[in-house]
Amino acid sequence: MPSSPSLATGPAPASPPRAVRDRRADLIVVLVALALAVWVTSGLWRDPNVRTITVNSSDQALFEWLLAFGGHAVTHWDNPLFTYLINVPDGVNLAVNTTITVYAVVFAPLTYLIGPPATFLVILTLNLLATALVWYWLLSRHLVRSRLAAGVGALFIAYSPGMVSHANAHLNWTAGWLVPLLIWRLFALRRAGHWLRDGLILGVLVAVAFSIAAEGLFFTALALGVFVAIWALHPANRVEARAALPNFLRGLGVTAVVAGVLLSYPLWLHFAGPQRFHGTGFDPVIHSEDIAAFAAFPRRSLAGEAGLGTSLAPNPTEENSFFGIPLLVLTVVCFVVLWRRADPHRRATLWALGALALIFTVLSFGPVAKVDGRRTDLPMPFDLVGQLPVVNAALPARLALVVAPVVGLLLAYVVDQLRAAPPRHRSTELAWLLGFAVALVPLLPTPLLTDEREPIPRFITSGTWRDYVSPDGVLTPVPLTVDIYPDGQRWQAYALSHRQGEFAIPGGFFLGPGGPDGRGRIGPVPRTLSALMDQAGRTGLVPIVTDGTIREVQSDLRHWRIETVVLADEVHGAKFEVDEGALLRTGTALFGEPQRVDDVWLWRIPPADR
User: Fold this and answer.
1) Contact of 380 with 369, CB cutoff 8 Å
2) Cβ neighbours of residue 275 closer than 8 Å, sequence gap 6 or more
3) Residue 4: what pLDDT?
């Protein structure tokens, strides 16, 4: 098997007839990638301001808020990485959250023009499309000669089960287009005489990746570090690696300096700033990959629609492997065929890819192995490394996302080999076609599930709220804003993106301090008022209100400096239906009779109580 083009040289220039065919192939891949991106997100395109992703409306609301707040912060010269608009009075350190700062800044004009929900949808669709196209560019221009091979590999990676799963509202994890760019620029550091420029470019790219998907950047860096180490230590590559090492290290040094300068403030906030924490608010045992999940089919796929999907993931947004048995078998066959026909240098690459996939597969099992939903007593390697700084803030299940690009590369390499030297027997060619069809067709994605969500009240959209909240004052919806009740941040996002002004809210959906042993938690530590309203909205039962309860609620109102409490006619619950009647009765018991303003019930809090 001839060696594939290297990242340093690229394929040979195409002859004119082939160039025409290649341009036609490029266009086909672009159209297919675009069609799949729109297909996956089609439920939202019906009406982005009304529709929401069924299984993850809370994260969608969070990213919409991040887009609105980021654009507002930039246009008003505010700090985009720390805010007191949520979690009054302590504020939120957004550097330890998913800030998508670059997206918020770049798309700020669009957010002001069409609103956060529509901008969210545009970015989500572009993420899927760009991931496919950038992987296709890397494969077709640097790694394989066949455009068909590049298309197969790129489309699989971009619409793999993990990517489609994270398309359930994760603007950070669907930004998979960053990965091939990082790979390209990392290997460019080998070039002699360009280490300064190449290190500068990679440093800027690292800063951009950190500002969009810090956890994804961390996983990519780990994966590339493992791959490069194994590849360089292979006997077939030691001479080449030793020769390239000085330039490579110089370039990495420049990268570290440039990225360090650009990220100095975000990194300080992340590790030493206010409202920081260590670890995360998620249980690594729950958020680890089930061993059986690698052989299972994802829910948003043709196989899942046929009833073959499973519930082995902690939630529908975390189906990070789910390749299915046919694809696992095909991947092993591809690896064996490539290995048998490879020269020593290609075998070194295959060895590094195989080891990389195996290492990240095992690490994704988390601290304790699970098989088909049942925990075992078998400790896993992640139990040793999971306590390390930075690693302890990562979800082990997501390490499985590294495996999909490895599978895509192997598929591309095999198709490239078959195109270069077609099988001598037609039966062999048909067997390969059948194998690819059986493995990949069941994984074809189906559209994300969407529903209508409760509208933002006219009280907010008309700007009436400004008559009831002082400048920079505090308003709260009930139930108070947390991940399962995202209305407060949705309302705030609307006000910010429509230039109505600012109001602050207690609580919010964010990661902050307050968890056990100094670890992080999701949202603020509950107080009496938030607990009572959650109980009423969740159960439909009005809590017993005593004089002691009233005093505790008044203490909460003073702590949060709340001026106005608002109950909408329709409250959005991300996980369950909310009983607005019970909320109204509970609010009346706590605050007295409400007044009707536009389409909301409203309580004014006397200055003495705040």
Assistant:
1) yes
2) 82, 87, 90, 91, 92, 93, 96, 512, 513
3) 44
Q: What number of CA atoms fall less than 13 Å from residue 445's CA on the CB side? A: 29
Q: What confidence tens digit (pLDDT) does each residue in 574-583 have?
A: 999 999 999 9
Query: For residue 106, which phi and psi values (nearest 5 degrees)?
Result: -60, -40
Q: Tell me the pLDDT tens digit for each residue of 415-465.
A: 999 998 877 788 888 999 999 999 999 999 999 999 999 999 999 999 999
How confident is residue 281, by pLDDT bands cut at 50, 70 and 90? Answer: low
Distance between start and end Cα atoms, the chain: 76
Q: Using CA of residue 118, residue 121, residue 123, residue 125, what is the dihedral sign?
A: negative
Say whether pLDDT at 41 is over 90: yes
How far is 308 from 323, CA to CA, in rounded Å?
Answer: 12
Whether the predicted pLDDT of 544 surpasses 70: yes
Q: For helices 325-340 and 426-440, what crossing angle results, to 10°?
A: 140
**Chain segment 230-269, per-residue pLDDT in tens:** 999 999 999 999 999 999 999 999 999 999 999 999 999 9
CA 536 from centre of chain: 32
Token pair recorded at residue 139: 């494969």
Three-state secondary-structure class, residue 397: helix
Strand (E) positions, 416-473?
A: 450-452
Closest-CA residue to 583 (of 575, 574, 594, 597): 594
Token pair belonging to 580:
């607005």
**Chain-centre distance for alpha carbon 584:** 36
Report which secondary-structure segment, H or E, holds 224: helix 195-233
Q: Which two tokens stand for residue 310?
A: 């499973």
Average pLDDT, the chain: 93
The CA distance from 573 to 549, in Å, is 25
Residue 166, classified by CB atoms within 10 Å of its CB into exposed (0-12), middle (13-18) or buried (19+), is buried
* 3-state per-residue secondary structure call for 271-296: HHCCCCCECCCCCCCCCCCCHHHHHC
DSSP string over 520-573: EEESPPP-HHHHHHHHHHHHS-PPP--HHHHHHHHHHHHHHTEEEEEEESS---
CA 577/CA 558 separation, integer angstroms? 30
Residue 1 has pLDDT above 50, yes or no: no
